[in-house]
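Worked example 2:
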Amino acid sequence: MRKDFLRKHGGPAPRYTSYPTAPHFHAGIDGDVYARWLRQLKPGQTVSLYIHIPWCDRLCWFCGCNTKQTLKYEPLTTYLAALTNEIETISSLIDPGCRVTALHLGGGSPTMLRPDDIVTLSQTLRNRFNFDADAEISVEMDPNDLTADRYDALAAIGMTRASIGVQDFDEKVQRAINREQTFEQTRDVVEQVRARGVRSVNCDVLYGLPHQTRKSMDRTIKKVLSLTPDRIALFGYAHVPWMKANQKMIDEAALPDVTERFAQMNRAASSLTLAGYTAIGIDHFALPADSLAIAAASGAMRRNFQGYTSDTADALIGMGASSIGQLPQGYVQNQPSTGEYQRQVNLGRLPVVRGFELSTEDRIRARIIELLMCDFAFSFATIRHEFGGAAESILDEAEYLAGCDTDGMIEFAGGLFQITQKGRPFVRSVASAFDAYFGTGTARHSLAV
């Protein structure tokens, strides 16, 4: 693909795990607003819970998560006590008839938690919320943290999906991102969780890292495939040192340019599809029997702050410092400072510092962007059915955009707006054309490929 085409369409764009994106959240949404939204959830509505553990025992230089390093356990003990208070406050505001269909432990490194704390946290949640018997329990795992008793604790809480960060198995790349992790360690995690009945394993792989090449990616992908994970997330490294100071440790001169990134992505994607994985959205691959592949094939896949998901819950409740929640009314985000977060929840307050209440126009644009990110297409009939006449001006924008396309990115016929195979790698750029906030404010974004 020509360099000028890549530069034109592969420039910075949001990842669209929400619309509007998080940089456009504002302080007008606070704990009082959030409490009102929580009280408006009705019996029978479904809820997905996200618990954020913002600690790691080492800081990976590539990481864009809200986390910090600690070699002591005391900060986690203090944090878990505060987290328990937030759980109690939120559960008191939600109707007990609401059903929890999924729980995700993320971070940071939730596998840093001691085994007894893992079990206690799960018991606290189950005592305060109404869990479905078949609720999905997923956990982000760092192979360097794991021990036999931690595996047993995760099995005891009913973990159904293990998400393992691989990034890259090349030692030079690992040293450049401060994430040393052998293939043997990773293989052991897969074997241990499967031995304890976990039915789904996900591996995260990154392209665009310092010193990565297509050949080194080939070696990593081959090793990942030998583990037969149920899902593989193939993410492009997002270099945003203006947001994440730890990324300043990465030598920018060692980063591949947009052409090499694109080549790495295509080569890895080809290897995964040749191995029998179904390509899903912009960066996921799954075995055909996996629930995500089934959801994608049926048009039921969604996209939220955790990326692509088969979770169709009515609300996502985030708990912990910096966590984000998504409710029918809009978005909320907790205080990112762990110290201030703990102070607020220990006073019985909801630690929300910003958010966004959705207008009708926001909902229409959010739905179009989500459909593009998930299905690479949307039908005018679907949007009209969901939103009626309020959508007409935005549908006019879509038709105009299709008419202006001279690069073979978009097809429009019979009321179906569809991104072509050529345009699919650049869907974030196409989606940004429907983003009324894109380019406003001071937000900066990573490359679209």
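The chain has a mean pLDDT of 94. Residues 318 and 325 are 5 Å apart (CA to CA).
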